[in-house]
Amino acid sequence: MKKYIWVAVCLLLLGCFASCGTQTQKQPSQNYENEALGFSFEVPDAWADNYEVKEHVENGITYTDFYYVYGWPQKKTTLLVSIIATDETTWISQQLENEYYLMAINKEGIYFANKVPKVPEEIPFKEGSKKAKEFQKLLLSVQEASKMFSLIK
Fold first, then answer.
1. What does each C-alpha distance from 127 to 15, 16, 141 come to in angstroms?
2. What is the pLDDT of residue 58?
């Protein structure tokens, strides 16, 4: 009987030591999902809790804008990435391919594209300042933003 108790204790201790590894797991990225439009966007870890999403419709185009939130005591925002969704007719008639990078077309014929701010014109901090340099690290290229985008329908 004592033999079984010792075996159980050894197995228990072995399990405890095995679970005490030094590896740290990376926190999963935040994921923004828009079920109505059928897309998701993997929010970069660098944005953490310093972003907000605003959506609006204008001239047949749905804008999903991701803003960097900064400033205290007054909250200020500046655009990080804008994802648009529109139909083929609007895409062609408004020549949106000149301003936006096409990422996907879903089976309903909705065009999804993204835009990133122009650098450095839209950086809200003094050029060359520490805050401006930190902010530039938050910006994505259109290719980086496209890799974080996916259709969910």
1. 54, 53, 19
2. 95
Strand partners, 98: none
Question: 7: pLDDT confidence band, cut at 50, 70 and 90?
Answer: very low
The sign one gets for the Cα dihedral 103, 105, 110, 111 is positive
- C-beta separation of 114 from 147 below 8 A: no
Q: How confident is the model at residue 119 (pLDDT cuts 50, 70, 90)?
A: low
In this predicted model, which residue has the larger pLDDT, 118 or 58? 58
- How many structural domains comprise the chain? 1
What are residue 112's DSSP bridge partners? Answer: 85, 104
Token pair belonging to 39 = 């897309």
Q: Which domain holds residue 72?
A: 32-151
Closest CA to 41 of 153, 151, 148, 152: 148
Distance separating alpha carbons of residues 105 and 15, to the nearest angstrom:
50
